[in-house]
Backbone:
């Protein structure tokens, strides 16, 4: 029997009623049975400032986040697109995760991403920047399929439920691939 | 006689002793006589959260920053490179600047960028992401020359002075081009 | 009286019936009266190979193209998106244009871009790569507005005419900005 | 006993004496014993033009290249950097590989890249664009370590041999990771 996968998730949007946080909330319902999700918060992290580090060590809140990610089997990031890139707050969290003694928070941890927007582009530019940063940190990011939920207001209701059937189906298929991807990088083989 | 240009500057690094902040501190000495610089701070901005906006209006600190940028003739941004992109804190400031009633903080405001790193790559990937975001905001960013100060520790002394003569010369020539660039986009023609 | 602007255009797609070539064919009709367009061909250029250069000089076909671009007041490039980037053939033409004695084909020549696709993304990733390459070559590319014609098959008829009224209107407004942009960089001020 | 891996390689540079082709020529000597390399040529491919396809089928030369890649266990691409991106010729080859009936040439085929330049940046921007295109095609590209051979003329001799000992050592370690990466994506599990 295959052991379940413990995945952590991060939303790049902080506001209540975020479409991206909603996507993460819908995932457990749409996922194959072997996947367990746990959402991590980044809203309490300060803006990165090297002077907040003591002996090159990031603050406790960062170290706790790093510990939780490294204890997981993989990470799923939901990201909006702000100004043709990922949100500064999400990049800031990743910048913190890269600090302190190696291995850093994301090193060797497999990743997958998805995104929703109210326009028609659906976060492709944001995901492109996120993907470049994950490569920099040696986190293998699943290349395809890409979840770009455009016009999210038509597909997610006011309670945050993904109601659009073709979107639900697409995310279901994507989660099957997420499981396959994460299992290619077993935690036991991480240095 | 040509009126002087009033330029504002932002450093993407918050730490004391930052090479990038040092670059900005050196610029007035190296610039042609017609350029006046004023440094703006971004360290007091919270991480962007849509719920911090009231009636789609950003907090006062953001609006004041927007006002100062719009009252200027152009903006110069010094950026380090974190994880193959611009610092989350810098992107966060720009995300804030894009909020509220149009025209936003950077719309139509000409820009130029420079960067320093202690490695050999010298922030080229960070500048590429910054450039993409400035295009999104309709801020015309000077394409060339690009200031990529690699191995900054060999070129900037402990007091933050750029001591390397060829770097000083390069920045001098770059500032001549910055003035030319900014003058192509007079404030009076901004909508 | 203002002198007319002579602009050259390049299509990144070679096939007959290309939506992008069609966009260029529609532009003269939609443009302000002061703009004159001349289309340049890139289909006869070989794939770049340094061994085709003699004494660092590109072949005659390239030099002729460089000459025509430098004799213009600016360049407009229509680009499809292939595999999240610009077409290899378009990049190849630009690579050739960057060769030979300075100033190269595009150096200091202002540029603007537009793109059409049959999907919903509308070439934003292709334009992002094109923009990065134009910055490398010191060609100032107009940052906004961005023409991303999605689902072009619904907006351009079989004769290549842009029939969608809102697309026509958008391109009209874009061309007004193109003229403004190109006039900021008069040929007489080019080194 | 582990079966050997059959890897194909492509050089993004066509000129004789290319540093990037030289890197590929050096790889067999530096690789672990289980890796077998076979170089594929792209120089005979025409510039992509949809009208060269018959019934959506690419020319025979493309189909043969697709067949060879799909018959391999993975692909290694050496790329120079031209104008802040990958060479047009390399992108053109990849554009061709993406054509015809699915699965396309690169779909599901694991990849790794390396690059050499005579400047100090060492192809990081070219690799970034290549990485984005490989993600578009669902080719999992190894995120780290990244081989950026800067000032290649000091590290590769006139006969194309990598003589710099630290570069040799770095590539040796990189090839160990390449093998690990490729084995995570066995051909038998490809759809």
Residues:
């Amino acid at each position: 029997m295959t052991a379940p996968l413990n995945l952590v998730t991060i939303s790049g949007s902080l506001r209540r009623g975020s479409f991206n946080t909603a996507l993460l909330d819908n995932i457990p319902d749409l996922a194959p049975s072997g996947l367990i999700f746990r959402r991590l918060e980044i809203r309490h992290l300060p803006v990165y400032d090297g002077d907040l580090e003591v002996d090159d060590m990031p603050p406790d809140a960062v170290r706790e986040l790093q510990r939780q990610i490294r204890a997981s089997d993989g990470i799923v990031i939901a990201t909006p697109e702000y100004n043709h890139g990922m949100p500064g707050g999400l990049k800031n969290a990743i910048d913190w995760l890269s600090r302190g003694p190696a291995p850093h928070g994301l090193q060797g941890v497999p990743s997958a991403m998805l995104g929703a927007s109210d326009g028609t582009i659906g976060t492709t530019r944001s995901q492109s920047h996120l993907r470049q940063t994950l490569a920099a940190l040696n986190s293998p990011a699943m290349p395809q399929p890409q979840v770009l939920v455009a016009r999210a207001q038509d597909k997610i209701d006011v309670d945050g439920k993904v109601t659009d059937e073709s979107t639900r189906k697409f995310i279901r298929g994507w989660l099957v691939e997420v499981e396959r991807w994460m299992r290619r990088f077993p935690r036991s083989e991480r240095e």
Notes: The longest strand of chain C covers residues 5-11. Chain C has one domain: 5-186. Chain C touches chain B through 17 residues (CB under 8 Å). DSSP finds five helices and five strands in chain C.
